[in-house]
Predict the 3D structure of the following.
Amino acid sequence: MKFPNGPQTPAVVQMLRWIANPMSFMEACAKSYGEIFTLRVDKNLPPLVIVSNPQAQQQILTNDTKELEAPGDLNDVFEPLLGKHSVITISGAEHQRQRQLLMPPFHGERMRNYSEVITDVTKQVISQYQIGKPFNIRSATQAITLRVIMQAVFGLYEGPRAEKLQHFLGDLLERTSSRLSVALLYFPALQRDFGPINFWGNQMRLQQEADELIYLEIRERREQPDSSGRTDILSLLMAARDEAGQPMTDEELRDELMTLLVAGHETTATALAWALYWIHKIPSVRQKLLQELDSLGDNLDPSIVFKLPYLNAVCSETLRIYPVGMLTFPRKVRTPISLGGYELEPGTVIIGSIYLTHHREDIYPEPKQFKPERFLERQFSAYEYLPFGGGARRCIGLAFAQLEMKLALAQILSSKELQLVNKGEVRPKRRGLVTGPDRPIEMVVTSQRQVKPSILQTTTV
Ligand code: HEM
């Protein structure tokens, strides 16, 4: 079989570029080899075929339980943190079963409960920032999204144990965001301590402490006979039964909780930070957004906020220009297929580059410009615009993340006047296995805006 063209540099060089700056590496490859190319990042692993053409994305994501599959063993870089039983690391029927157990808390009626949590937490966090004192906006948005997901997962969860878990998770995620940590994930032989350099060991110890708190919570819930009225995600998962009537084991519960806690806050925190950066970098964007929010008067009802066209366009453009998840998870060819002019054999690994698709000039003219208006002028297909992936592994938290972005932004913008401390360019870079800003984005509260009554919590989204 002939693989699509790609760089001929040694695998280790390709791996280092992949770790150091995957976006510029992908852009350079797309320039040289076009919309389908092959990377060889590890001589012990199969080559990776990277695609950015929307038709190819569609072919892959609509067939990933037919001619292709979406196996979890290709996501083994997530295993040290999320475990062997995470929905991200399992495959086939087990993956389908687990998705079915995990989806209900992220749909329909349940979403209504989260509006209140998001609004309250945003208010608490943002009230801590004083006029004139600069702060790192990503730390603020991370504080919001971590508290929100903790409450969604555990219900009202306060006290020293909750604080400890929040602290461990925050620390753990901060450590795993470094390039060194990513290098350790891609080179498992380095996953150990080297004399006094105990980066990996410290990470594992932190994780163990977080795990102990999660297991303690699970054990206590099992012993509590009165937990039947609870509607948090942990209670729903503990009550869930598969087709054979079996509940999830403690280990499965731990891995799924860790998956939701990690996937559920890291990505949205970055998306919110980018949104605030763009809104305050481009005055006309901020002006239009405030006009739209202010037009609601006192009625910041979540269902209305959720449907605001310009706010929606700003959030969509934020996830287009620098998608936090720059790639889909890998898919594997099961039966021979023809893709982008190449005949691919079973076993070939294909990854959709969300970043490259979102930067195609033919779909998004002036792709490097932040222009929310493009989402008002045109509708994009699910394969031209895919910040949450698609198919068998489409993001479970899509609706949750969109709701959180919109309600948190509405709350922040209507209560505070903010400014960027430094108006210089911020570019995306790798942050762990996802992306984030390449330098801290400092903001400052310049004044309170006329305080509106908080977002009402009663309407369906
Ligand atoms: C802006 C925020 C978010 C972005 C950009 C994002 C993006 C993604 C992407 C690109 C995928 C891979 C899809 C594919 O391969 O087709 C994914 C999967 C996933 N996401 Fe998200 N996500 C976000 C927020 C969340 C939230 C809030 C949660 C949970 C509360 C979550 C949970 C998951 C899970 C569990 C998967 C794996 C699904 C599976 O393997 O079946 N994500 N996400």
About this structure: The pocket of protoporphyrin IX containing FE is lined by residues 87-88, 99, 259-260, 263-264, 267-268, 271, 319, 324-325, 328-329, 387-391, 393-397, 400-401 (CB under 6 Å). The chain has one domain: 11-448.
